[in-house]
């Protein structure tokens, strides 16, 4: 999938390795800066939502369902520092009408997430 | 003990003085405020589009808008600019934002404790009675010098 303009504004690049879930990478740029030296929480949230949509789109595959966000809950755990932030989504349930998706964002190690999100999507066919 | 600054937090001047950062990049501006609430604007911008087929902006910029509006509401209720970090934020997306319209986000701080602020808010694109998003969240106050750096901050402390 092609990432939308908003993902490009954040500088997000998709890394796809065969056999591994897609990871998104967001570099530390003035565009994502919050208070000095830290990634803005809104940019982190935007990255998490994009990771969730990528994971859901891949899980849907050839299924042409349209995806509408119902809600998102973001937990902020650590400050994002001046380095790239990575994120990946996981589809925890893919139903006929509703999809539950989780996403985590990390910098140094995936075991130390800096933020995580839980999302509900409506699938419209 | 540190002495507290005596000036009151002024969101209009805060946004005027802002020099950059994510909030400025997505175009968030000041509109109005009261004792415990703030209204910020997010003008429509093609760079924010999340769905190219419809031109609807991504949900991320609305998250940023509401994070900042609720954050400013806390500074207003406390009467001063103090370091704080978002602990969590939940957004219900009631309907898509209409392409071309400015989104207005209103954040309110409805409860303060010694270390936690509880916030809520709504976003609309012209009619406050037809909101497009509803938010609820919590912030934590972080001491200068021992800041954990969690989450966001809306920009540059002067």
TrEMBL record, chain A:
Signal peptide: none annotated. Residues 37-112 form the Thioesterase domain. SUPFAM superfamilies: Thioesterase/thiol ester dehydrase-isomerase. It comes from Sphingomonas qomolangmaensis. InterPro entries: HotDog_dom_sf, PAAI_dom, Thioestr_dom. NCBIfam families: unchar_dom_1 (TIGR00369). This is PaaI family thioesterase. Keywords: Hydrolase.
UniProtKB/TrEMBL annotation, chain B:
The keyword Repeat does not apply. CDD domains: PaaI_thioesterase. The keyword Hydrolase applies. InterPro entries: HotDog_dom_sf (IPR029069), PAAI_dom (IPR003736), Thioestr_dom (IPR006683). Pfam families: 4HBT (PF03061). Keywords: Hydrolase. Residues 55-129 form the Thioesterase domain. NCBIfam families: unchar_dom_1. This is PaaI family thioesterase. It comes from Sphingomonas qomolangmaensis.
């Amino acid at each position: 999938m092609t990432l939308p303009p908003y993902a490009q504004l954040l500088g997000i690049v998709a890394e796809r390795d065969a056999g591994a879930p897609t990871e998104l990478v967001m570099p530390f740029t003035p565009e994502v800066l919050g208070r000095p030296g830290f990634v803005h929480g809104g940019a982190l949230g935007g990255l998490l939502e994009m990771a969730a949509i990528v994971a859901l789109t891949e899980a849907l595959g050839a299924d042409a369902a349209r995806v509408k966000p119902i809600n998102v809950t973001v937990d902020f755990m650590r400050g994002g520092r001046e380095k790239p932030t990575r994120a990946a989504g996981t589809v925890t349930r893919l139903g006929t009408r509703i999809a539950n998706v989780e996403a985590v964002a990390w910098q140094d190690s995936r075991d130390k997430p800096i933020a995580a999100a839980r999302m509900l999507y409506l699938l419209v066919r | 003990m540190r002495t507290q600054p005596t000036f009151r937090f002024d969101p209009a001047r805060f946004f005027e003085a802002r020099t950059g950062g994510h909030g400025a990049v997505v175009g968030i501006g000041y509109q109005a405020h009261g004792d415990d609430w703030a209204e910020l604007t997010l003008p429509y911008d093609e760079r924010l589009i999340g769905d190219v087929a419809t031109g609807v902006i991504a949900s991320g910029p609305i998250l940023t808008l509401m994070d900042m509006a609720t954050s400013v509401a806390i500074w207003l209720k406390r009467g001063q600019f103090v370091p704080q970090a978002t602990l969590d934020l939940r957004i219900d997306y009631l309907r898509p934002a209409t392409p071309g319209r400015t989104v207005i986000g209103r954040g309110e701080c409805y409860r303060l404790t010694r270390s936690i602020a509880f916030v809520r808010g709504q976003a609309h694109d012209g009619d406050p009675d037809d909101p497009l998003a509803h938010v609820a969240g919590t912030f934590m106050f972080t001491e200068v010098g021992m800041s954990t750096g969690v989450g966001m901050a809306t920009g540059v402390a002067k």
